[in-house]
Amino acid sequence: MTTAHVYEAINKVTAVMAAEGIAKGRKNDQQGYRFRGIDDVYNALARPLADAKLCILPRVVERTVTERPTKSGGVSTYVVLDVEFDLVSAVDGSKHTIRTMGEAMDTADKATNKAMSAAMKYACMLAFQIPTEGDNDADAHHPEPSDLTRKLSASIEWGQWEKAQGETLRESRSMGELQERWASAYETGQKSPNGTLKRLGEIKDEMKKRLGQPRTEARP
């Protein structure tokens, strides 16, 4: 039985990325967390995809658009894309389809572009299991206290992030501002430890009730 070449190609790209990885070399100026940008993914995958003779062809299945007011009085466009990506072999035409979601918010006309980039980035990261660090040296990886230190450091960083996001949600002065801040926290918090988003969600629900209550004016 002959195996479709597309899976051999996917495996080849995955092997290259396992050795090289893509570091989180970019930093979010507002929340301070580090991330891998879509340009980093494109640059890292361009050569391995060409060598493996593998093409990635996107197809938007569904697009949802919501307009939300900003604290400055403007309008922010929030876009959610449901996207399918065909991984197609240039050798025998065999393909495998993967499906991801992309979410983004923008006050101009770039929300859809950003959402498409997000969907593409996470589709590639999941399909090729791209690590943040490569593993070229077998002797360089073994369970030492440094591994535990890194895990502890990551836990502390997420704890600080959760605290900052909770304070940001509580500072919301309108439902629109609350939703905007929650969308930003939710997108980043997908990789947070279990329970983080649940706790932030409870703060969001608490603020929704508070902001939804009618204000009463004091009478003399």
Overview of this structure, please?
Helix 4 packs antiparallel against helix 5. 48% of the residues lie in helices and 21% in strands. A hairpin with a 5-residue loop joins strand 4 and strand 5. With 220 residues, the protein is of the alpha+beta class. The protein folds into two domains: 134 residues, Enolase-like, domain 1; 70 residues. The protein is elongated and about 60 Å long. It has a three-stranded antiparallel β-sheet. A two-stranded antiparallel ribbon has the order 1-2.
Instruction: Say what the CATH topology of the largest domain is.
Output: Enolase-like, domain 1
Please trace the helix and strand order, writing H or E for each element. HEEHEEEHHHH
Question: What structural category arises from helix and sheet content?
Answer: alpha+beta
- How widely separated are the two ends? 87 Å
